[in-house]
Design a protein that fits this description.
By secondary structure, the chain is mainly beta. It is 8% helix and 52% strand.
Length: 252
């Protein structure tokens, strides 16, 4: 993670040397989904509404830097080792991403009004983790964190904790300028979460073996939690520098 932060910072410093004074604000709306430890990971099987906003600073017609916030619900119903499992929670997502256009794109230019693009950056997500030992017991009675009473039954020691989890965000999309200051777009964003707790299944198949050792299948950098966001956005140009850069001048 430290190496990724260093590379990202170097890229931004390099780009800022050629910075031009244009910026956009955008609103975003769509649906979200989770890929986790459930057996069935069909994408977008539930309509989880999400919305948000972002601010984009444009270095030139090809490269920008986007700060983006999304909030909404994430839920799924499915099976884990033939046992029913479901979760439903709110997730807040904050990212900073470089946005790179495949074609030159400038709001207000008739000749640079459309482009596919990609995004890549760093972020964090906030949500709650609900530990449900009695539910986990139905498919993994040897789960390390389950406590038992004198009769051998799992103790109902449910707990909830709030988490701030680092993420690796990236995405693809297309955008169109529909006026001097207005643009629209469609995009698909994904997040790699550095935690396995989003679906309330934290390494669910781990167990304590016969000699008392805990056997794990996931780790900080290797887990099964991803989120995906499919949505549309509307963008408005909010500022142009006093002296327009040739890269931004319309050649109508």
């Amino acid at each position: 993670m430290k190496k990724l932060l260093l590379v990202f910072a170097i890229v931004l410093i390099t780009l800022s040397g050629h910075a031009q004074k244009t910026a956009d604000i955008g609103i975003w709306g769509g649906t979200g989904t989770v890929w986790g430890d459930m057996d069935d990971n069909t994408p977008f099987d539930k309509l989880n509404l999400n919305f948000g906003a972002y601010f984009r600073y444009n270095f030139n017609a090809r490269v920008g830097l986007r700060a983006m916030f999304l909030t909404g619900s994430m839920s799924r119903d499915g099976m884990v080792e033939n046992a029913e499992w479901s979760f439903d929670k709110g997730v807040q997502d904050l990212t900073v991403q470089a946005e790179i256009n495949y074609l030159k794109y400038v709001l207000g230019s008739k000749k640079m009004k459309f482009s596919p693009y990609v995004t890549l950056g760093l972020g964090v997500s906030y949500y709650t983790y609900n530990f449900r030992p009695e539910d986990i017991y139905t498919f993994n009675p040897n789960y390390p964190e389950i406590n038992y009473d004198a009769t051998g039954k799992p103790v109902a020691n449910d707990r909830e904790e709030s988490l701030v989890v680092p993420t690796l965000p990236f995405g693809i999309g297309v955008k169109w300028a529909i006026g001097q200051r207005l643009g629209v777009g469609v995009e698909y964003q994904m997040r790699k979460h550095m935690s396995d707790k989003l679906d309330d299944l934290d390494d669910p198949l781990s167990f304590v073996n016969d000699i008392g050792e805990t056997v794990n299948y996931t780790s900080q950098n290797h887990n099964n939690d991803w989120t995906g966001y499919l949505g549309v956005h509307v963008t408005y140009k909010v500022y142009i520098g006093k002296k327009a850069c040739p890269a931004y001048q319309s050649k109508d």
